Amino acid sequence: MIFSDLEIRAAIEQGRLKFEPEIPKDSDRIGSSSVDLLLDSELLEYPQTPAAGIKVNPMQAGRSIRQLIQQLSSPVTIEEGRTYALEPGRLIIGKTLEFMRFAPDIAGRIEGRSSLARMGLAVHVTAPTVLAGWAGQLYLEIYNVGPFAIELEKSMPIAQLVLERTGVPPNNPYSGQFHGQT
Q1: Is 141 tagged catalytic?
Q2: What is the pTM of this model?
Q3: Does residue 88 have a cis peptide bond before it, meaning omega lies within 30 degrees of 0?
Q4: Active-site position among 111, 141, 153, 164
């Protein structure tokens, strides 16, 4: 069942849902059934033109997705008071400003904000699931499918987090390669 604003606030107050920096339980970033998340200043930029001769096999033995992303991208920082222009057809990796920690019976979905989506901005390609027991910042596959550049700013509301309760806590809360990522 999806959490309402009352359940989100209660989970924060009980310490079952934590955000760093803190999102106060009375924040206007808590909507009727979601929490607005902000964009961190650190981005990873893929090459603008197709990289000739590079073939990516994410399932190759001994290689993690994190390593591949680091190898194939360049870091970019959005400076205070500046913007990053995401051109049409470009994919970058961003992350939420917030480090979050879920209780073992809380899971979620990261979703785009409709105002940005109407401009052509997608914040996840096909990976909206945040598994029960998650801890870390959420990485975003930010893609501009629109016809014009979209300016991104540090700390802008970039996505919304929809929270759900599992029927019972899982035997194995998430502890994969992205657990604790910053």
Answers
A1: yes
A2: 0.87
A3: no
A4: 141
